[in-house]
Amino acid sequence: MISLGFAIALAGGALAAGMAAYGSSVGVGKAGEMAGGVISEDPDKFGSMLILQALPATQAIYGLVVAILVLVKIEGFSEARMLDLPLGAGIAIFAACIPAMFGELISAIWQGKVAVSSMGAVAKKPESFGRAVIMPVMVETFGLFALIATIIILMVVIQL
Amino acid sequence: MAISQVVRVEIVAPKDRAADLLGTLENIGKLHIDDIHDGLSDEDRAWEAEHRVDSRQVDERLAATRIVIDAFHRFAPVKTGLLEDFFSSPPAVSDEEFRNLTGSLDIVAYRDAVHAQVEGHDAVLSELQALRERIDAIEPWQELGVDLADVQDTSYATMTALRVPSNLVGQLSAELRTQAADALLQTVAKRGKNTYAVVAALPGSQEGVRAALKGVRADEVELPQLHTSATEALASAQSRITELGRRRDEIERELAAQAEQHRRVVLAISDDLEGRRRVLDAERQLFYSQHAAVVAAWTEVRDREQVEQRLAAELPDVRVRFTDPKPEDAPPVRLRNRKLVRPFETLVDMYGMPKYGGIDPTPFIAVAMTVFYAISLGDFGYGLMQVLLVLWLRKRYGAAGGTWLFLTMFLYMGVATLGVGVLTWSFFGFTPGATEAGKFLGFLPLINPTAAEDIIPLIGIAIGLGVVFQLASVFAGFLNLFKRGQIADAIFDNLAWFLLLLGAFAALAGVALDIVALLIAGAVLAAPGLLTVVLFSGRNVRNIFGRLLAGVFALYGIIGYYGFVGAFSDILSYMRLAILSMTSAFIAFVAEIIGNLLWGGEGVVLFIVGLIFGGLVFVFFHILNLVLSMLGSFVHSLRLNFLESFQRYYPEGGVQFTPLRREGRFFRFED
Questions:
Q1: Which fold has domain B8-51+286-332?
Q2: Tens of each residue's pLDDT in chain A, 160 residues
Q3: Nearest in space to B98 (alpha carbons), one of B294, B276, B268
Q4: From the CA of A157, how many Å to the nearest CA of chain B?
Q5: Residues A47, B635: Cα–Cα separation, whole Å
Q6: Pairing of strands B668-669, B92-93
Q7: Residues A72, B456: C-beta atoms closer than 8 Å
Q8: Cβ of B576 and A130 within 8 Å?
Q9: What is the pTM of this model?
Q10: Please, what are the domains in chain A?
């Protein structure tokens, strides 16, 4: 019998992975639309467009890492998985996932938007690529902070 | 492993020999020509005599070739597959063959002839389109049985042709009875969901007719102006369409035949004219006095003797001087790497050259790219498929030049994947000989991306690789700056951060592993780094407090070369290697599970059906996984190289060495 606590904890990991993947798909999608336009004008810019488009994909990876860490926390991979996890512990794990859920979702979408602007800059001035790539990476920093917050709360603060 | 040494070449030739000189330089193909006017002082500019470079004739002929190529593409497109488009290279051509091709056609006259045919073809298409529209307009009225010219208003009656949805004909009839009692509705034909009809009414009832039409959303239709019956007009139009269709087919056959016969010649002329345009552009970069033309160029040291000898032999009246680059010069960069590393130059080309005098990042990228890619893909079967695919593509499409290098890079990365595949003991998701009870030979797989207990170690390995590559990147940056003579930046930025990060990681490892000696060693290493960063990151600030504040901000990464946040972010980003490895392995694992479910049914029929369907599912999943994983592994490895690593040692870009030489878009010139 799976306890409500176990289910809520799983929901936290699943939402973190799902919301991050959603954010990444929006971000990469927006950047992809712009990349297609730029490449149609100048196919030589494929390399720089590829990197800029791939930037918001990182959040999906962070989300997946959170899901894996939740499974590790509740021993989801082993035979001794905590099916009777208390409700309070389940909610605590869910709460730990909240920074990652929203941090990855929103930062991926905004990173996609900034990547679009950077693509515009690179389309006009290819030599500005090095600088243009910094702008979207700045947004990713906050996705990273969210990940770290989740990891710290999950692995350090919550003692099961 | 190096950026090739270059020398400056200055050539002075009689002004009237400038074109010959550039032709010779193009044939030699070893000189990168600078625009001599860049950075020229006003005083020097005053010396320059007027020299007009007229490219109008070449431009006109180039435009002519583009029109002809477009026409050929339209009437006889060359059908190529996706793979061929991507991996094939232009055919090789000898000098003699190329000369024969380009000299066999007057492209401007030929353009006029082709253009006339295309215009004739387009006129036929326009007429055909107009005729079809006319047939569509006439066709519903052919059952009317009278000349359409007779269906018009008279002083005794008005005639209204209309189109109404068929299900509303009854409603229209009722509306007409109400709004225009004397009106007569005659339906003519039904086409699709609409009915075509004519309403005859007394002139005074016209408003009532319109109101009735509006009530059922019927459209008034303008009848085609004909002086014959609709049937006769249709027959006439059909006959003309047949005639025009024959004419169209004839022109298309003729143009397709022209394309078959002359395509190679026109493409050669296009390449030839593009080359001439390049030479004319180069002519504009020369300096001209009243009597002389001056070329400022660069050549590789290894080619110096050859350039000198050929110029002396072919243009004895020019004067040549070779000088070493000065510190203020920005010589172009040509990478020269050993055969094993050379394919990875394509990645450096993609993102820009390093500065002359710095280090060549290609070997670093070769190692990093190969390791990242192999870990991400991580299956022996997939590595083998990649190797075989690359070998086949190289042979099948005769890859040459950049395409050959690109494919060879994938070959190397495929071979590395074989190695990682052995360590993970994964063969299309199978782990032969390994069971839950024990490993194959007692130790394989060393790490299994689909095993729960190996997931965290795998992420740890990825982060560990991140630490190693980031430290290596920072140290490479130190070497780069040191080599370029930027000693202060090399020490106060790169070396300081290298020591600080190395020490910090060592100390962290000491804490984690409970090794006091490692903790102390880390602290000893980190302390001078930390001090240097705090004291010297703001070295351009004169105020001592401002300098210290800048140093503290530099630790965070707001200003300066690096920062803890940046380093942390970069290193965590390497987790993607573990995630990609797991993704690839899990999908392969799923393919194996589904295949197993379908295989091995009881009875001969079920066994055979299961074998076929299971095999198809297995192959489908693996092809899908292989393609997605190859793409994902490449893109993310590229990202780690460029974004996380590249920028730590590669802050400024240089100019690529692009010699003036014969290059073709459609042909490859044999050396």
A1: Alpha-Beta Plaits (3.30.70)
A2: 889 999 999 999 999 999 999 999 999 999 999 999 999 988 888 888 988 998 899 899 889 889 988 988 898 877 778 889 999 999 999 999 999 999 999 999 999 999 999 999 999 988 778 778 878 888 888 888 898 889 889 877 777 6
A3: B268
A4: 17
A5: 10
A6: parallel
A7: yes
A8: no
A9: 0.79
A10: 4-157 (1.20.120.610)
SS (H, E, C) A91-142: HHHHHHHHHHHHHHHHHHHHHHHHHHHHHHHHHHCHHHHHHHCHHHHHHHHH
Q: Which long-range contacts (CB under 8 A, 24 or more apart) does B186-192 make?
A: B188/B140, B188/B141, B188/B143, B188/B144, B189/B140, B189/B141, B189/B142, B189/B143, B190/B166, B191/B139, B191/B140
Residue type, B364: F
Buried b (16+ CB within 10 A) or exposed e, B548-566: eebbebbbebeebbbbbeb
Q: Which residue from B352, B366, B350, B343 is spatially nearest to B650, judged by alpha carbons?
A: B352
Chain B residue numbers touching A129 (CB-CB < 8 A): 351-352
Joined tokens for residue B161? 């042709």
ω into B445 cis (within 30 of 0): yes
Query: What tokens appear for A152 in the block?
Result: 């710290």
Per domain, the residue ranges of chain B are: 8-51+286-332, 152-222, 337-435+442-451+583-651
Contact B572 A144 (CB under 8 A): yes
CB contact under 8 A, A130 and B647: yes
Residue B427 CB neighbours (<10 A): 18
C-beta atoms of B639 and A54 within 8 A? yes
- What CATH class has B152-222? alpha beta
Helix residue ranges, H only, B8-51:
18-28, 42-45
Question: Between β-strands B287-288 and B292-300, what pairing exists: parallel, antiparallel or unpaired?
Answer: antiparallel
The residue ranking higher by pLDDT, B436 or B531, is B531
Closest CA to A16 of A73, A82, A96: A96
Q: Is the ipTM of this complex over 0.90?
A: no
Look at B452 and A47 and tell me if their CB atoms are within 8 Å: no
Cα–Cα distances (Å) from B377 to B6, B445, B621, in that order, read 40, 15, 15
Mutate to test the interface with B, among A55, A66, A73, A77 (most CBs of B within 10 A): A77
Q: Nearest chain B Cα to A140, which residue? A: B569
Q: For residue B553, what are its two tokens? A: 């901000």
Q: Which tens digit of pLDDT belongs to each residue from B224-263?
A: 777 777 888 889 999 999 999 999 999 999 999 999 999 9
Disruptive mutation site among B450, B463, B642 for chain A (greatest number of A CBs within 10 Å): B642
Classify residue B63 by burial, with Cβ atoms within 10 Å: 0-12, 13-18, 19+. Answer: middle
Contacts of B642 in chain A (CB under 8 A): 51
